[in-house]
Design goal:
274 residues; alpha/beta; TIM Barrel; 12 helices; globular
Length: 274
């Protein structure tokens, strides 16, 4: 979700009922080096719901130091009272990103090829912060290197609070069908919660993945692009209500509000270009 899940977008999603949001990926190396742009990814806006700080990196010590920095209240977060907002509610470790520039640095899903390193990172971060720690994985590097169950057990054994599974292989990227049976198998293999991720683009997809996998928590990413009201639609259906129709007029009002938030957050010219 790099380039998308910034503070204005998260605020919109929270307003439509997202129970929690996660930051864009944050480089642990960049955060520890004190990069202002990297630190800015952690900043939040007043009114957001619980926030997870999503870190990636390949060095256990650096990841632990970055987690400590990320866990602290951020002075750059914006509130109407000009006081820093509280820090994140949890730390999320990304072991699932398939993007080449991340994988080349041995980050993201590359760490699934070294479960010993994954364990060291998880243990170091869990020991470093008092916040819950979650970890995001894929089904494996490829079908021949499928190891999501083993990775889930490593994450559980390291003291993490939950594991998020995107049931595709790295070789699939974001194409092809998800292997939802992997979510069910992982739920049976670990005792910590398994959060389902992948291809939830409509309320129907949400109910299908819950029914098929038994996962009680579902993460929606790309399915919220251009449709952040998907969270409200799902909650309406869960409550037995007919979802409110998002008319063209309502969509235009939402677009105008989102543009205003982008300008407020980045300034006029960057806000328009963003």
């Amino acid at each position: 979700m790099a380039g998308y899940s910034d503070a204005p977008f998260r605020l919109i999603c929270s307003g439509y009922g997202a129970d929690f949001c996660v930051t864009e990926m944050i480089s642990a190396d960049g955060l520890v080096r004190g990069g202002g742009k990297t630190r800015g990814i952690l900043a939040g806006m007043e009114g957001e719901g619980p926030l997870g700080a999503q870190l990636f990196g390949a060095d256990p010590e650096t990841m632990a130091r970055a987690a400590v920095l990320a866990a602290a209240p951020d002075k750059t977060s914006r509130s109407s009272s000009d006081k820093p907002l509280s820090g994140p509610a949890f730390i999320d470790l990304n072991f699932g990103c398939p993007v080449k520039k991340v994988v080349r640095k041995n980050g993201g899903v590359a760490i699934m090829r070294d479960l010993g390193l994954m364990e060291k990172i998880c243990r170091a971060v869990v020991a470093a912060v008092d916040l819950p720690v979650t970890a995001k994985i894929r089904s494996g590097w490829s079908r021949d290197e499928e190891n999501y169950v083993e990775a889930g057990r490593v994450i559980e054994g390291s003291g993490a609070a939950a594991v998020i599974l995107h049931p595709r292989y790295r070789t699939q990227g974001f194409s092809g069908e998800t292997h939802r049976e992997h979510l069910s198998r992982l739920r049976e293999a670990v005792k910590i919660p398994v959060i389902a991720s992948g291809d939830v683009k409509s309320p129907g997809d949400y109910f299908k993945i819950v029914e098929e996998t038994g996962c009680s928590v579902v993460m929606i990413g790309r399915g919220a692009f251009g449709r952040p009201w998907i969270f409200r639609e799902i909650k309406d259906l869960l409550a037995g209500r007919e979802p409110e129709d998002m008319s063209l007029h309502a969509r235009l009002d939402l677009f105008e509000r989102f543009l205003d938030l982008e300008i407020q957050w980045y300034g006029e010219r960057p806000g328009y270009l963003n």
